[in-house]
């Protein structure tokens, strides 16, 4: 939560073990930090209102309590304000507070009787050089009660984490530990529930915070009930744009993607860098196509003529998927043949085969053969930039450059192999939803002096009886076509949300 664009406060439960002779501490009131408000803003409530009730902040208060706690405190408050009503909202001025941890107390009648339980807040002033996470919040891969868990947020600091240490913020449960390097690990109990907590990073006197969501599944629950699959062309790895690494990280985190097929990976460098920053897994072909996954990658195929695949374990051997990514040859380009060159349908079809794309997709599908026969046990995905449109989009009712129905080989062949175009499951009518992914930054083709054909070139195919398409959509960040903008590609990404339609009992019988 930012205060006047410079300050951040985070609430945290604070538990005290007191040995106070014959004293029972049982406050009846309540105090909470208000998110999204300036300074330290608190809502309070008490059954004992008084004009001299007050809320104070104490630095390092955990060691400040003394035996006669109701009479005085061992140190003065760093900042305070009266809270006279039975219920209200007040702002404690930060004044000259230095960054660090403070404890908020709700005290009675200018004294030190507790009107509510105290809790920690963190006062964080952004450094002039800027210490911050690339995002404000993140959802981590799910944990399962009773199983060991690990994740890492150490790579999410803007500009790198050199000199940065990571610390517990709010509501971190007893089973979960955080290392100074940003590693999160532990073993949740069998009855553990979903978590939302805060961690903070520190470098010198500068601090930044990150809100973290951690789903926790029960022993009898499917660990991954839904799966977000993405295809993402990085366009020269994103290197034509400023701060491309942080922009790509930010987009991926906010998208909540689980597995991503990457194209134009800059020799595999981007998948490696993104995986290390996210604490994910990756496979890189060292050419153009790579795989980025929240979940462990166990077996990979190597490069197979513009494509590659991996077996990914969502929940050990109980829940697995086969995932393939392809980046087919880009030239000659069929829409240019129709729209700019005036070729006939037969000429364009010959041009498609001359491009090598049909052979590339045939080689991919051939390598997927056994996997395509076993999709009732392990579903399969094929995603990528095919550099050719779909026959599902080019129809007599939805013509392109005067051309109606055209059987683009690179979309026909996957369907003939039993794969399903997930976008057209969600949106079967191309006239109502074209799903255009290219070109996000080129409305006009300078070489031809004509409007650039806008096409759906990026696809997510699947096969598996347990998969149900919930939705599919085209994604970008911000407005493209400027080096300073958030989007770092000439393609839009495409995402499909899948639901698994089996129960845990079925899963264990496989």
TrEMBL record:
InterPro entries xrefs: Endo/exonu/phosph_ase_sf, Endo/exonuclease/phosphatase
Residues covered by the Endonuclease/exonuclease/phosphatase domain: 231-491
One Pfam assignment: Exo_endo_phos
UniProt-listed SUPFAM superfamilies: DNase I-like
Keywords noted in UniProt: Endonuclease, Exonuclease, Hydrolase, Nuclease, Signal
Keyword Hydrolase: yes
UniProt keyword Hydrolase, yes or no: yes
MF (Gene Ontology): endonuclease activity; exonuclease activity
Leader peptide range in chain numbering: 1-22
PANTHER family listed in its UniProt record: PROTEIN CBG08683 (PTHR41349:SF1), PTHR41349
Protein's UniProt name: Endonuclease exonuclease phosphatase family
Source organism of the structure: Fusarium albosuccineum
């Amino acid at each position: 939560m930012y205060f006047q664009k410079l300050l951040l406060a985070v609430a945290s439960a604070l538990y005290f073990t007191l040995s106070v002779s014959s004293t029972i501490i049982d406050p009846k009131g309540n105090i909470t930090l208000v998110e999204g408000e300036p300074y330290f803003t608190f809502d309070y409530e008490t059954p004992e209102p008084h004009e001299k009730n007050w809320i104070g902040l104490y630095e390092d208060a955990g060691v400040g309590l003394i035996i006669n706690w109701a009479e005085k405190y061992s140190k003065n408050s760093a900042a305070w304000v009266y809270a006279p009503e039975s219920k209200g909202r007040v702002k404690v001025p930060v004044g000259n507070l230095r960054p660090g941890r403070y404890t908020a107390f709700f005290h009675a009648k200018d004294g030190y009787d507790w009107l509510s339980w105290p809790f920690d807040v963190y006062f964080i002033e952004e450094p002039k050089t800027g210490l911050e996470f690339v995002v404000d919040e993140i959802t981590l891969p799910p944990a399962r009660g009773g199983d060991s868990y690990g994740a890492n947020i150490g790579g999410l600091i803007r500009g790198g984490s050199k000199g940065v240490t990571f610390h517990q913020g709010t509501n971190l449960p007893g089973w979960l530990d955080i290392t100074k390097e940003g590693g999160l690990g532990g073993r949740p109990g069998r009855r553990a529930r979903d978590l939302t907590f805060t961690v903070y990073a520190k470098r010198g006197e500068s601090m930044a915070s990150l809100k973290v969501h951690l789903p926790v599944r029960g022993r009898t629950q499917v660990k991954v009930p839904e799966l977000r699959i993405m295809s993402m062309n990085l366009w020269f790895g994103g290197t034509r744009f400023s701060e491309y690494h942080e922009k790509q990280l930010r987009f991926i985190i906010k998208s909540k993607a689980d597995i991503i097929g990457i194209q134009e990976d800059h020799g595999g460098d981007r998948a490696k860098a993104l995986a290390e920053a996210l604490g994910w897994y990756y496979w890189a072909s060292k050419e153009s196509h790579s795989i980025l996954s929240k979940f462990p990658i166990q077996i990979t195929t190597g490069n197979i003529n513009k494509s590659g695949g991996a077996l990914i374990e969502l929940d050990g051997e109980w829940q697995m998927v086969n995932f393939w990514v392809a980046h087919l040859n880009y030239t000659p380009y069929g829409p240019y043949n129709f729209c700019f060159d005036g070729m006939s349908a037969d000429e364009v079809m010959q041009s498609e085969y001359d491009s090598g794309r049909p052979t590339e997709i045939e080689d991919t599908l051939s390598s997927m053969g056994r996997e395509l026969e076993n999709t009732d046990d392990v579903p399969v995905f094929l995603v990528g930039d095919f550099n050719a449109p779909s026959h599902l989009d080019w129809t007599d009712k939805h013509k392109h450059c005067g051309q109606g129905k055209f059987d683009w080989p690179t979309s026909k062949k996957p369907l003939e192999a039993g794969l399903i175009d997930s976008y057209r499951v969600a949106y079967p009518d191309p006239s109502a939803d074209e799903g255009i992914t290219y070109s996000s930054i080129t409305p006009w083709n300078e070489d031809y002096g004509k409007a650039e054909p806008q096409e759906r070139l990026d696809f997510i195919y699947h096969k598996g009886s347990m998969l149900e398409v919930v939705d599919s959509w085209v994604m970008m960040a911000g407005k493209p076509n400027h080096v300073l903008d958030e989007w770092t590609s000439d393609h839009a990404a495409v995402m499909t949300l899948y639901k698994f339609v089996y129960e845990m009992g079925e899963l264990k019988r496989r």
